[in-house]
Amino acid sequence: MAENTKYIDTKETSPSPKDFKSDQEVRWCPGCGNHAIMNAIQKALPHMGIPREKFAFISGIGCSSRFPYYMNTYGFHGIHGRATAIASGTKTANPDLSVWQITGDGDSMAIGGNHLIHAVRRNVDINIVIFNNEIYGLTKGQYSPTSKLGAKTKSSPYGTIENPFHPGELIIGAQGRFFARSVDTNMNLNQEIFLEAEKHKGTSVVEIAQNCVIYNDKTHAEITNKKYKEDRQIVLRHGEPMIFGKNRDKGIVLEGLKLKVVELGKDGYTEDDLLVHDATLKDPGIHLMLANMQYPNYPVAVGVIRAVKDETYERKLENQIRQVKEQSEFGCVDDLLHSGNTWEVK
Ligand SMILES: Cc1ncc(C[n+]2csc(CCOP(=O)(O)OP(=O)(O)O)c2C)c(N)n1
Ligand code: SF4
């Protein structure tokens, strides 16, 4: 990487959102949620204190995976489902890069599901942003692993008969240390989350509910519609009580082994009874429950749900290589070749 530093000019040492936009024509449909997510990322990047040439955006295949073309950073448009493998390798070989994987629900959880869970388990220090439109957009509307049960699509004309994956459940179940959720139009929260994801050392997974206006319009409307969103989403912030609602009059308590929605001022509940969000709890129990909250029984949790510190894969790998080198009886490859039984072929 030291090689690249000679190309930095002073403007690039303190970039602005505009500096992160490439000169490529953005070919997403007008109104697609991808535009807002990209804007939020471009706005958040200058606040990370990382020079532009230290960012790498890696993707697989899908509408969302066209993302690296639109970024004026290093990037790699990979093959379907393999973005996680490419991102893991990029980070492991270049630990000083800030690596971002941009992926769809199909790309990451269908064909790429295996790679995704193992990167999360290993805790490679990459940031994975899942654009969840509950459909395959690029291939014109087949159902995906996150499509709702019963969803009628081009490949499920009578409705799906499969239970969908909930990304939070999958990621936390795979030993994920960082999981956050948001919706495409919430620019401010998204910027906050991207900054937290970058600060977190280890795999950060951010699920963003994204609207595909063409093949799955309004699939998230139940929770994103302006009329109801405050009553149907709860913004979780570390250290703050779990309170929500247009009138800030509802909250979450733990009753027995279950979360429960309560109304403040009713049945004797006050703000003091509410759970206070602790994103750093090692035990995944409560985080799993929060990530699994579904409308209409619960509000859907957005914000950073889980952020637990742990050693990263690449740090462990570096340590292991150093230790093995220190203890090795071989100083160079020649020593190795001339060790043990050797024969000369004449
Ligand atoms: C090996 C392989 N299988 C299938 C495809 C076809 N294909 C391209 S994109 C895609 C799904 C994309 O859906 P998603 O990841 O949800 O992204 P979106 O387009 O919705 O952003 C599929 C199945 C392919 N390109 N390569
Ligand atoms: S098909 Fe859907 S996901 Fe793809 S660019 Fe258009 S609106 Fe976006």
Give an overview of the whole structure.
This protein has 346 residues and is an alpha/beta fold. It has twelve helices and eleven strands. The radius of gyration is 23 Å and the shape is globular. The structure holds thiamine diphosphate (TPP) and iron/sulfur cluster. Residues 28-29, 32, 34, 63, 133, 137, 212-215 line the site of iron/sulfur cluster.
Quickly list its features:
alpha/beta; 346 residues; 8-stranded mixed beta sheet; binds thiamine diphosphate; 11 strands; binds iron/sulfur cluster
The number of E-state strands comes to 11
Report the oligomer. single chain
The residue ranges in which pLDDT falls below 50 over 5 or more consecutive positions are: 1-10
Q: Which hetero compounds are present in the coordinates?
A: thiamine diphosphate, iron/sulfur cluster
- Percent of residues in β-strands: 15-25%
User: What distance lies between the first and last C-alpha atoms, to the nearest angstrom?
Assistant: 45 Å
Radius of gyration: 23 Å
